[in-house]
Amino acid sequence: MSDSRKRGDDAADSKFVDALSEPSTSEVHAALQRILASRCFQQAERASEFLRFVVEQTLAGAGQRLKGYTIGVEVFGRPADFDAQSDALVRVEAGRLRRRLVEYYAGEGAADPVRIELPRGAYAVKYHFACKDEQSGPAPAPPAEVKQGSVAWQRLAFGLGALLVGAVGVITWQQSELREAAHALAVLEQPQRTEWPRLVVVPFENLSANVALDAFAASMTEEIMLRLDEFDLFVIASQASWYGPSKTNLDAAAAGGYVLTGSVRGTGNQARITARLIEAETGAQLWTAVYDERVALDRLPALRERIGRDVVAIAAPYGAIFEAELARARGAADAPKLRDCHATYHEYRRRITPAGYEETRECLQNVSARRPDSAAAWSGLAMLYVDEYASSFGRTGDGALEAAREATAKALAIDGDDFLAHLALTRVQFFDGDPGFRKSIDRTVALRPNGAQAFAQGGFLLVISGDPAQGLVLMEKARELTKAPFGFYDLTYAASYLRERRFGDALASALKVDGRNWVFAQAVLAAAAAHSGRPDVAHGAVERIRELYPSFEADALKNFERWHFDAAFSDALVSGLRAAGLDLEESNASLSGG
Description:
Blueprint (H helix, E strand, L loop, with lengths): L2 H15 L7 H12 L2 H4 L2 H15 L8 H7 L14 H18 L7 E4 L8 E4 L21 H10 L14 H12 L4 H4 L3 E4 L3 E2 L6 H16 L5 E4 L10 H6 L4 E10 L2 E10 L5 E10 L5 H13 L7 H12 L6 H14 L2 H17 L4 H16 L7 H17 L4 H13 L5 H11 L4 H13 L3 H14 L5 H13 L3 H9 L7 H13 L3 H14 L3 H11 L4 H13 L15
Parallel strand pairs: 3-5, 3-6, 4-6
Antiparallel strand pairs: 1-2, 6-7, 7-8
């Protein structure tokens, strides 16, 4: 081969290796059309309109002028007075769009020659030629027009063995094809997202002869997929039918992943809906639920929503996936991963123990040192540092709160949509005495409207700061959204009743709290018991407070100031603690915890 011929071959290959040139406008438009015609985006109208708008604006040279306000008004029809800072709609939809693009290029778009990305912190898209490593198959020629159901699309989808997002049909894929798609997922350059546990969602199957149940099975899959989008998981939507724990879906989940599958069967207007969670590595069934329901047209939306909410609870804190992740994290011998910290963090918040605090802090500090670009690591640390300020764990005083501010700022600079960072920001503002914490509550709720955590935290802060009416509305929503409420919820009600001097109700709620390791919970219990004429219960709570926090009597009143309790709650709490036998000092020379 001549030198000139070799140079020509090298040049032709270079666009895949080094991306020496940018794709042309027509090539980007073709890439956009492929994305919009994919199964991944067919049922995602908001994401499709969002992507179309930002691509067209970027190609027109207006990318750097794209703002949340513009997108909110032009794409989502918000009014002219739309405030993109207080309304998280655009940020939330941007996060969902990024995840859909990741999933598209993991499956249907694995062989696309042109990649379109929506970088974090901006709304102008970026596009480039795919490197060889990014492609898992031959690049298709860009069609002039991509039509739904076209022969070209079917050949591409079947050839790649795509894991199709939002799919509602039931198609059999070969094991080798799913392995190829799983490999495409593994090589994606999305380390923060793919570090989360993987969950393969297999479409619900209609196992009966009643074809009318096909649509219901398909809609159940879609409902679950939409709700799972709000959890810290890497969700893979599979078109494959379920064959069993040793088959292709377990391969797609990969080591440490999970498979969710379900079925519908029935005759007439009666149906049995079954859902199962399988651990991919072992094939063990971790969870199952069965619903025997009357399926009537007027009941379908509510039925689908209720079952969908129940099923996705497996991915929420203290659900089946959480318990499996905690066991795996505790048994891991290598360097901790973000998913390990995520499990130990929620276990710490459930138990509130010094050992759990130290375990989680060390895990997150290890991850943040290795991955300083991980928003989730910094936001987790921010939540812990707020606890240091508000509790008797670790450092106390202004140093802890400043550390929380810094970690929160780092997390939000990396990912403005990070949910835990917004939770931390809400708490930092609350302890700073900044009334803006109320708007931050609204932002966290908007980020995860189907998650209980934002509602529960917001409800608690509002109750103790003097707005029990709104606070209990949020807490009721938290109860509605979770299958496994824990003592924090009952503590909020106990605090509200104590504030209203409904001492019997306060005691009843406080006794439901599994808060033996939480000083604040024991304080509410002691006060409610003393006011209710139960010295035995009050004495037990006082002894536990002294055991957990020996200097409580010297520090309590100063610490209560940092919580910004409203007068009614503070009076009932302090008078109750004194009646329980605690000698609360009026002034403090030092501050060491709360």
